[in-house]
Amino acid sequence: MSPIFVRSLPFGLYIVLLALESLLPDWAPGFDVRWLYPLKAGLVALALALLWRHYTELKSYALPIKHLLLSLAVGIVVLVLWVKLDAGWMLLGEVGEGYNPTNQAGQIDWLLVAFRIAGAALVVPLMEELFWRSFLQRWVQQHDFLALDPAQIGLKALLIASALFAVEHLQWLAGLVAGLAYGWLYIRTRNLWAPIIAHAVTNGALGAYVVVTGRWSFW
Questions:
Q1: Residue 14's Cα: distance from chain center in Å?
Q2: If you placed Cys at 112, which of 74, 101, 127, 146 could pair as Cys (CB 3.0 to 4.6 Å)?
Q3: Is 122 exposed, middle or buried (0-12, 13-18, 19+ CB in 10 A)?
C-alpha cells in the first residue's frame, strides 16, 4: 500500500464521518448524535489497527526518559495555552455548545465522557500525528518522506504543516501553537511517539478540565 494512503486513510475517514455527523439530524431525527463520537473513534481505531503493520515509525516504543518528560511538558504547555487562546479573533467561526454529555437534569453521562476522553486521548493523537507530522510535515520537505530523517525537516515544512493543522480547528491560533509545538517535538526527538504522547496529554488533560469546569465548548 502507498505510504501516503495508509497515513491519510484514518484521518480522511474521521473527516468524512465528521461531515456526515452534521447532516444526521436531517435524515435521522430523534437520534442522539453524541453517540456518533464513539462510532467515529471506533472506526478510526479499527482502521489504525488494520494498517498498523505499515507504520514503521511506530514499531519502536523506546523513548528516552528525557524525551518522555519533554513530551509531557509540551503537552501540558499546549493545554494551558489552548484554554487561554479563545478570544473572538482567535476563532474560525462561532463557538457552539460543544460536546455536552449531560442530560436534561444536568447530570453527566459518564459513559459518554469515558468514550469522549478515550477517543480524544488515545485515537486522535495517533491518527493526527501519523497524518500531520509523519506524512505531511515530512512530505512538504521531501516527497520521498519515508527516507527523510525528522531532524532534517526545515522551518518552511514545519510552518506549512502547522498552518494547515491550525485551520482544521475552530481555535486557529491555539491550533497553530499546538502544531508548531508537536512539529518541533518531532524534529527534536526524531521519534513520532513524542508528539503522539504530547498530543495525548493535551487532549486527555483538556477532557478532565472540561468535565471539571463544565466548559463543554472546548469539546
A1: 11
A2: 101
A3: middle
Mean pLDDT of 25-51: 86
DSSP-assigned beta bridge partners for residue 204:
none
Q: Sketch the domain layout of the chain as residue ranges.
A: 3-218
What value does the mean pLDDT take over residues 42-62?
A: 96
Going from the C-alpha of 132 to that of each of 20, 45, 53, 68, 169, the distances in angstroms are 22, 17, 19, 20, 13
Taking phi over 0 as left and psi of -120 to 50 as alpha, with beta for the rest, 98 belongs to left
pLDDT digits (tens, 9 = 90+) for 100-151: 999 989 999 999 999 999 999 999 999 999 999 999 999 999 999 999 999 9
- Integer Cα distance of 47 and 24 in angstroms: 22
The letter for the amino acid at 123 is V
Helix (H, G, I), strand (E, B) or coil at 171: strand
Instruction: Give the span between the Cα atoms of 197 and 186, in whole angstroms.
Output: 11
Residue 211 has pLDDT above 70, yes or no: yes
Residues in the chain: 219
- Per DSSP (E only), the strands in 120-214 are none
Q: Which of 88, 106, 112 is nearest to 32 (CA)?
A: 112
